[in-house]
Amino acid sequence: MLHDNIIIPRLLFEQLPDLCPNMETLDFDPETWKSVCFNMNVSQWIHIRQLPTLSTKGPSLPFLHCLGSGLSSLSIQSEMILDISTQNKLFSLLSLVPRITEFTIKGNRGTSNVTPTTLYLSLEDIELIHKLLPCLESFTITGNNIEMPIGELFNIENFPTAHRIKTLHWNTRLMPVTWLLFVTHKYSRVQDLVLAVQNHIPNISFPQLTEENALYIQLVQKCRHLKKISLSSPLLNDWFNASFLEDLVHLPHIQEVGPIVQKGNRIKFDTELALAALPENRRLITALEIEQWRLDMKLSCTLNTLRNFTKLAYLELKCDSYNDKYDLENLLDSCPRLENLVLEWGTLLLTDQSRKRHPLKSLCITYVAFEPTVFQYLSNKCRSLSTLLITKCKQLCELQNVSTQTVIQIDMPQNNFELILMDGIRLDYSNANVFYRGLSSYARVVSIQQSDMPVKWYQHVEYTSSNRKVPISQLLNDKDEKVTQDYFSQREQYSFVNNHEEEAKTNMEFGYIKIKCQSLRNFVLDGNFSC
After folding, report:
1. Are residues 108 and 150 in the same domain?
2. 401-457, pLDDT tens digit by residue?
3. CATH number of the domain bearing residue 473
């Protein structure tokens, strides 16, 4: 997502079976997959278990004929089975992969100029999938251009059950509520369920279709193996309501209730937060999205309420100004199992620092002011932190500490990062342009040191020609690196306003970002801001 697609040259792909004979998983984007040509060398991949998501039937069939019997996982885009012969296409594909335990149908994204054609998956299509895949344990259907119409269900008990299914994720644009009846019977041993349905009930004479809420209760009562559920429908108010949560209290097999992603499941009212915080409900909830600026309570009260959620692993908290102050230590102490934290607007502070460590893995902050000591705290207390996203934020500079006016230090030598993304980060030293016109307080230069490796300097230069939102960073040459390093070394020792004007004209930026970590797999520095 961060770089242009890397196309695998045909000759290189033909050599891969010789270079990597023990390959088990291939995973790259569908466009790259389309450019790969079949050759008989792939027959050497006797250990292959997963291919990339298939997007076109023609080029994919030779690979499935050759490798399909050994695959344990298959993912396809909906266009592969799109037309009136859907069942024929399903048969031609799935008969080649009889041993797979995981099957995914993904809706096509399409392009900006082309609207993806809708795929209609019927009850007969679902039954055919199970008939062809007797070992299936995980079944996913997701995409806004997939619809799942359903007819009359008079003899639901006559449908064969799928006892092997442990994971069922169905999240499409339109799925009538009558599918709840089918899911309840067909997948009685499901453990992980994600389901999004509409509240439209067809005019059919079926005695159990009297109340939609009763169908949800029937599902969670009869599926006694359910441990984790994420349900969405207009009746459930996007993922929970009072009556539904009250019914779940009496079902001890339910261990976790989460929202369906991208369904607008944010808490916007005090009553909603109070409902979620009830003792019988909070034991279930693992994720919360709170629009603090809508609540009629102080941020400190919200943080105190969060202490009740003993299983909370994901928290998204949105305020509306820098005046809302977060005590990072207090926040993490309030949520001792928190792994993913998203903050929007506010000021991140540190008061007392305890010795307790936290399992935080991902931190995303947007429009947040932070103290220079925040990253030192994260280094000491959050050793598992591997993703850091900082967008449109500012570091609070200390007038008596010159280095805080020059450098944003992410000094975390124990952490192994998958991704650090910095977009529009500045030092909050607003008097800079008073002394030197046109000088920006945004950091556009970064130094990175991994483990015991030499320091490398980068700067944002431009964006990709195909996507103006994908930034390109450039490694400084030896000469520019020396000039840059010398400049900032002097800046960190002397107050900026006392420097000579000639020194400010060396085209150096006002501040820079200094990263020190054990390892860093991906780094993005974006210059998409106005000075």
Report:
1. no
2. 767 777 889 999 999 999 999 888 888 764 444 444 444 567 778 899 998 888 888
3. 3.80.10
* Three-class SS state of 440: coil
Residue 128, domain member (yes or no): yes
- 3-class secondary structure, 79: helix
- Return the residue matching tokens 């389309």: 34
> Quick check: 327 and 300 in contact, CB under 8 A?
no
The answer on pLDDT for 112 being more than 50 is no
Query: Token digits for 275?
Result: 């409902």
Helical residues (DSSP H) of 232-356, grouped into ranges: 242-248, 270-276, 279-282, 299-306, 328-334
Structure tokens at 274: 């109070």
Contact assessment for residue 484 and residue 478, using Cβ atoms and an 8 Å cutoff = no
DSSP annotation of 199 reads S
CA pair distance 460, 523, nearest whole angstrom:
11
Question: What's the domain count of the chain?
Answer: 2
Q: What angle do CA 389, 395, 401 make, to 5 degrees?
A: 140
Structure tokens at 161: 């059950």
Q: How remote is the C-alpha of 293 from its chain's centroid?
A: 24
Examine the fold and report which residue of 82, 112, 142 is the final residue of a domain before the chain moves on: 112
**DSSP H or E run through 146:** strand 138-147
Torsions phi, psi for 210 (to 5 deg): -95, -30
